[in-house]
Design brief:
α7 links the parallel β3 and β4. α8 packs parallel to α9 and α10 runs parallel beside α11. By secondary structure, this protein is an alpha/beta fold. The protein starts with a helix and ends in a 15-residue tail after the last strand. Helices cover 43% and strands 15% of the residues. The structure holds alpha-D-ribofuranose (RIB).
Length: 341
């Protein structure tokens, strides 16, 4: 006997209309607690919008779902391009979703894609996670993740960059130019991606005999606005001659704020990013950065997902992608200190 909205409503002690709104994602006027309660019951009862969907799930639709967290960030749009090419080459269509870096929206999209009977989901996760909520979230189609970590059970593969080595190479490069006090304007420090980049930053300092100073670590969103605001308000430390940023958007925002403060890049201070989005090469000055092969990340993730869908065995469920230093004009040797008179 298939589970109905009415069954869920009775258990939850709400109206069928409320359950229907939550299931269809139109729950703006419903409290978070009620939404979570209804979702939990629906998952426990293995609710499906209609029994036809369940019987039809055995039918392969040759469709992949891709969820990315920020469609405005060229890193993720390049990634989506690689994902689509990879799906197309294997005869699959791609449904594309933007979660706006919001876990609830991400989970709604997983539900929606499942109801649309995709054969699998490739997920570039949002930053903020909720272990308890995710561990109770049943995903009934194969899912492969890339870049950031998730707590969802049953993930069939994870592909990410070697962030620690990438950050190490970045800071080692700045030190090779002569910089010793380097500000790290990190992305969100709650996620492993940023923690690994911080480890690489610290390893390069230690190797050069430079003491780590936690006052030179700032953390915030992976956004242009964050980089701009951080450097607009930063209390200048004349000893700091370089800034390493958690991604290119932070770096480009920082450069804009520095220019407004009449601080020249790289003459007065060097700035370095991470990702190598196309804006890094067209900016003036060109942004020195670490290239994350975003296209290849998306391409490889969908290839792995389709292998899982088609039963190709993958013993190694994790794939780590090497990164590359891309020197450009935003970094230079530090200015010589005025000779002591
Ligand atoms: O630009 C977005 C950043 O967040 C990238 O560095 C990527 O690794 C993601 O985690």
């Amino acid at each position: 006997m298939s589970v109905t909205l009415k069954d869920i409503a009775q258990i939850a002690g709400v109206s069928t209309a409320t359950v229907s709104k939550v299931i269809s994602g139109k729950h703006q006027d419903i409290g978070e607690k009620t939404i979570e309660k209804i979702r939990k019951i629906a998952r426990e009862l293995d609710y499906r919008p209609n029994s036809l969907a369940r019987s039809m799930k055995t039918k392969v639709t040759r469709t992949i779902g891709l969820i990315i967290p920020d469609v405005r960030n060229p890193f993720f749009t390049d990634l989506a391009r690689g994902a689509e090419d990879s799906a197309h080459e294997r005869g699959y269509s791609l449904l594309f979703c933007n979660s706006d870096d919001d876990l609830n929206k991400e989970m709604e999209y997983i539900d929606t894609l499942t109801q649309k009977q995709v054969d699998g989901i490739a997920l570039a996760a949002s930053v903020k996670r909720n272990r308890k909520l995710e561990e109770g979230f049943r995903i009934s189609v194969p899912i492969v993740t890339l870049d950031r970590d998730v707590y969802f059970p049953g993930v069939r593969g994870h592909i990410h960059s070697d962030n620690e080595s990438g950050a190490y190479d970045a800071v080692k490069y700045l030190i090779s130019l002569g910089h010793r006090r380097i500000l790290f304007l990190s992305g969100d420090l709650t996620i492993r991606v940023s923690k690994e980049r911080l480890e690489g930053y610290r390893r390069a300092l230690t190797e050069a005999g430079i003491e780590y100073d936690e006052n030179l670590l700032l953390g915030g969103p992976f956004s242009f606005e964050y980089g701009y605001e951080a450097m607009r308000t930063w209390e200048m430390d004349p000893e700091v001659t370089a800034i390493f940023c958690g991604n290119d958007l932070i770096a480009l925002g920082a450069i804009k704020a520095l220019k407004e403060r009449r601080i020249k890049v790289p003459q007065d201070i060097s700035v370095m990013g991470f990702d190598d989005i196309y804006l890094a090469s067209i900016n003036t000055p060109g942004l020195t950065t670490i290239r994350q092969p975003s296209y290849e990340l998306g391409y490889a993730t969908v290839r792995r997902l389709i292998d899982v869908i088609e039963g190709v065995d993958h013993s190694d469920s994790t794939m780590v992608i090497k990164l590359e230093l891309i020197p450009r004009e935003s970094t230079a040797k530090p200015k010589k200190k005025a000779a002591l008179g």
